[in-house]
């Protein structure tokens, strides 16, 4: 099929922050080729669907999304399927639909410009996990806001029995120390005041500093702390098994490291944790949280939960509720278990009825929502700094993030990128209102 020259592209990313980061980087690759971002898929010559494989029936939803790209005149843009669904499905994508032109995995998207050229002559699949770092092939970041994501680690060696990440993202790989520091400097030079370090297991990052000394994530954070103009540091997602004492101490020592930690536990039942191959217990998890609260009493905690895992009894579920009641999370993500083909849990006996899982999920989320509102209410009256990220829905409203990752709405003559001192004044379940108390910090 002969196509006119590709001039406009549209990237749609699904799922986690790392997919969001990858989507931004693919956009920058295409811009470096002279293409312009389109406002929507309908006006694009090239559409990239950057997919996630975590949610239930992810592949089926992607194929539905592909179908909607067909236009009234029977034509369609060049379609690239990227991300974890592309990695998991591979060439099977081309067998299921004729609309897709390119299939590219999350470790090969730096090849996208060349794949587009190859696709002019026929369908292309690239789901290799090459030895060379894709980050070395990516162009310099151009679009940088006041907050920026910075991937430092990819892949996973944990092999939780429900998870596809080791198969779609590969083994744990840490980016080199100096390249991370250099990229962080570049982001700050372009206007970033807050950087969030990303990784499937970000606290598994390790490397050597410029002096050849071994470093863990805490050493990397301490180096970032020295960058002038960088005012806030965050990281996610962490694994309890990689939460070292040095990293815990960093939360007490480093002012720029925000008092927020996303540390998934998944279940409060040791029996289910063992079946999940999580390699931690509720006791070891709670011990970590106690230590964190000792060094940083105001830390806000976030977590992930899976309900209805194969074999989960009502008692197992109650133990999860008990854990939640003890920890009292500031926010959390929760899901009903759904099997992923190729994972050990998909073949386990005692799969839980979907109706039971949904009912348990509703109870769990009700408890989590109660605690989230309580946390927000407990911060009322605090004076704190927020970093303005975007305009609100109403005229004159601006929205920024508190140190505890709350969305704070204010009405004040400020602009995106400003750091504003506010008093938190009114709490809702998902956001807080604030009043500006001091002048803007440029």
UniProtKB/TrEMBL annotation:
Residue intervals of the Radical SAM core domain: 142-374
Keyword check for S-adenosyl-L-methionine: yes
Cofactor(s) recorded in Swiss-Prot or TrEMBL: [4Fe-4S] cluster
Catalysed reaction equations from the record: N(6)-dimethylallyladenosine(37) in tRNA + (sulfur carrier)-SH + AH2 + 2 S-adenosyl-L-methionine = 2-methylsulfanyl-N(6)-dimethylallyladenosine(37) in tRNA + (sulfur carrier)-H + 5'-deoxyadenosine + L-methionine + A + S-adenosyl-L-homocysteine + 2 H(+)
Domain TRAM: from-to ranges: 377-438
MTTase N-terminal domain residues: 7-121
EC numbers for this chain: 2.8.4.3
Classification via PROSITE patterns: MTTASE_N, MTTASE_RADICAL, RADICAL_SAM, TRAM
Enzyme's top EC category: transferase
Keyword Secreted among UniProt keywords: no
Pfam families the record matches: Radical_SAM, TRAM, UPF0004
GO molecular function: 4 iron, 4 sulfur cluster binding; metal ion binding; tRNA-2-methylthio-N(6)-dimethylallyladenosine(37) synthase activity
GO CC terms: cytosol
Principal subcellular localization: cytoplasm
Superkingdom of the organism of origin: Bacteria
Subcellular location: Cytoplasm
Cofactor note (record): Binds 2 [4Fe-4S] clusters. One cluster is coordinated with 3 cysteines and an exchangeable S-adenosyl-L-methionine.
Residues noted as binding [4Fe-4S] cluster 1 in the record, renumbered to the chain: 16, 52, 84
Sequence positions that bind [4Fe-4S] cluster 2: 156, 160, 163
Alphabetized NCBIfam families for the sequence: miaB-methiolase, MiaB/RimO family radical SAM methylthiotransferase
Family designation: Belongs to the methylthiotransferase family. MiaB subfamily.
Function in brief: Catalyzes the methylthiolation of N6-(dimethylallyl)adenosine (i(6)A), leading to the formation of 2-methylthio-N6-(dimethylallyl)adenosine (ms(2)i(6)A) at position 37 in tRNAs that read codons beginning with uridine.
The protein, known as: tRNA-2-methylthio-N(6)-dimethylallyladenosine synthase
Natural source organism: Zymomonas mobilis subsp. pomaceae (strain ATCC 29192 / DSM 22645 / JCM 10191 / CCUG 17912 / NBRC 13757 / NCIMB 11200 / NRRL B-4491 / Barker I)
């Amino acid at each position: 099929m002969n196509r006119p020259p590709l001039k406009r592209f549209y990237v749609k990313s699904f799922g986690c922050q790392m997919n969001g980061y990858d989507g931004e980087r693919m956009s920058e690759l295409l811009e470096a080729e002279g293409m312009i971002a389109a406002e929507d898929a309908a006006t694009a010559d090239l559409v990239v669907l950057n997919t996630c494989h975590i949610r239930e029936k992810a592949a089926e939803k992607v194929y539905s999304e592909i179908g909607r790209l067909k236009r009234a005149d029977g034509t369609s843009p060049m379609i690239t399927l990227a991300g974890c669904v592309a990695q998991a499905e591979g060439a099977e994508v081309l067998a299921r639909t004729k609309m897709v032109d390119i299939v590219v995995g999350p470790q090969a998207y730096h090849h996208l410009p060349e794949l587009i050229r190859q696709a002019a002559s026929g369908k292309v699949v690239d789901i290799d996990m090459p030895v060379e770092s894709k980050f070395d092939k990516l162009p310099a970041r151009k679009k940088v806001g006041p907050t920026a994501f910075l991937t430092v680690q990819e892949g996973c060696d944990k092999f939780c029995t429900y998870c596809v990440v080791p198969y779609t993202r590969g083994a744990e790989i840490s980016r080199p120390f100096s390249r991370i520091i250099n990229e962080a400097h570049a982001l700050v030079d372009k206007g970033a005041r807050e950087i969030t370090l990303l990784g499937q297991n970000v606290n598994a990052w390790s490397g050597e500093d410029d002096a050849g000394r071994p470093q863990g994530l805490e050493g990397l954070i301490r180096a970032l702390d020295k960058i002038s103009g960088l005012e806030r540091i965050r990281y996610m997602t962490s694994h309890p098994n990689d939460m070292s004492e040095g990293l815990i101490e960093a939360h007490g020592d480093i002012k720029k490291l925000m008092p927020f930690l996303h540390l998934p536990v998944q279940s409060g039942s040791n029996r289910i944790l063992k079946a999940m191959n999580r390699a931690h217990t509720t006791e070891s998890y709670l011990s970590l949280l106690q230590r964190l609260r000792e060094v940083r009493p105001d830390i806000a905690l976030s977590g992930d939960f899976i309900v209805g895992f194969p074999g989960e009894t009502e008692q197992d579920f109650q133990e999860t509720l008990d854990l939640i009641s003890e920890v009292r999370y500031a926010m959390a993500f929760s899901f009903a278990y759904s099997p992923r083909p190729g994972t050990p849990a998909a073949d386990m006996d005692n799969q839980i009825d979907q109706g039971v899982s949904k009912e348990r999920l509703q109870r769990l989320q009700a408890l989590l929502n109660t605690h989230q509102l309580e946390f927000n209410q407990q911060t009322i009256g605090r004076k704190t700094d927020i970093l303005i990220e975007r305009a609100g829905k109403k005229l004159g409203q601006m929205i920024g993030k508190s140190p505890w990752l709350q969305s704070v709405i204010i009405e004040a003559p400020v602009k995106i990128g400003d750091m504003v001192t506010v008093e938190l004044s009114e709490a809702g379940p998902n956001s807080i209102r604030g009043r500006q108390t001091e002048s803007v910090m440029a």
